[in-house]
Design goal:
single chain, alpha/beta, Rossmann fold, five-stranded mixed sheet, about 35% helix
Length: about 160
């Protein structure tokens, strides 16, 4: 089994950076089994394609436009993903939708794909998260850890 935890977003576009911030926290504070890769995908788009080859389970974290209140956390999977990614928040989301489509065309689309997302409040130049999104950091980390545990690949806190 191969699991990829992929944080997506742009750290200089306020709330758009939430996915990257979550994976950075996971990388700093948790150890994972060897079959789990935790990756800051930033705004790489199609350049992430090699990372998907051989990945059986893909867990993404990103800011997602859902039309809900800022800070609302959502879990999307399977067929819900292309629909959610049609409303682009920033240039990287076009790349993410394309990435998943090309992986499928190449025949190495992950068997299971889940996106943990949060409704952004601010998508302007800036390095700080809005208070509504920042308040969901721990929740997103907990949800990612729970999802991974459900897949049988639990993260362990780094002592210190």
């Amino acid at each position: 089994m191969s699991v990829l935890v992929l944080g997506i977003g742009n750290l200089i576009m306020s709330d758009d950076g939430i996915g990257v911030r979550v994976v950075q926290l996971l990388q700093q504070e948790y150890r994972f089994p060897s079959e789990v890769t935790v990756l800051d995908g930033g705004t790489l788009g199609l350049d992430l394609l090699p990372w998907l080859e051989g990945t059986e389970q893909l867990l993404m974290v990103d800011a997602v436009e859902t039309g809900r209140e800022p800070g609302t956390v959502v879990r999307l999977e399977g067929e819900e993903l292309p629909v959610a990614l049609k409303t682009k928040l920033s240039p990287h989301q076009v790349g993410l939708q394309d990435l998943l489509a090309v992986a499928e065309l190449q025949g190495f689309s992950p068997q299971e794909m889940v996106l943990w997302g949060v409704q952004p409040a601010i998508l302007e130049m800036g390095t700080e998260l809005s208070s509504a999104v920042a308040a969901q950091m721990d929740t997103l980390v907990d949800r990612v850890l729970a999802e991974l545990a459900g897949w049988g690949v639990a993260g362990q806190p780094i002592a210190g």
